[in-house]
Write the structure tokens for this entry.
Amino acid sequence: MTANTPATATDGERSSLLKLYLGRGVLAVAWAVAFAGAHDTLGAAAITLLVVYPLIDAVSSLIDHRALPEGSERNVTAFNGVLSALAAVAVGVAGAGGVAAVLATFGAWAVISGVAQVIVGLRRRGPELGKQWPMLIAGGLSVLVGAFYVIQAAGDDPSLDVLSVYATGGGVFFIAQAGLLAWKARQLRTRTA
């Protein structure tokens, strides 16, 4: 959907986004639970999970990209998908450098990905797509929290504990956006019935 046509969202577009947001949100929360139990040491399980998280975002972006018509929103979604795939590799490599390197890499990705999420959310602000306020908040928080992670990584005692909170928060916002889309679809069906 382009910036000029948010009010013309079809039921199929809303349904597709609803499924994407719900799936993305549930996966983020599940990842947070798994990571909370696996990150005490920066071993294979923790590094694998750290690589998987940006891959979830990359796959979500690819799915979203394929559903969008040509336009700037599609380009930003493609950029975010490529960025997230590269971030997965970078986080995996950073794992060899320790907690600070992982936190700084994850934080840098969160900042840039958050900016992309805000841009897409602004372009989907139409009432037919639920106004996108959860996505805008999540993107803005991603930018702020990512910057905090980069700063924390340079400190004396960086910790990966914060990443489970980050993923949980993001997951909740994606689920909230899915709920808004479902509510909007129900409103529209009631009006046309």
About this structure: Confidence is low (pLDDT under 50) at residues 1-7. Helices lie at 11-38, 44-67, 72-94, 99-123, 133-153, 161-192. The two ends are 26 Å apart (CA to CA).
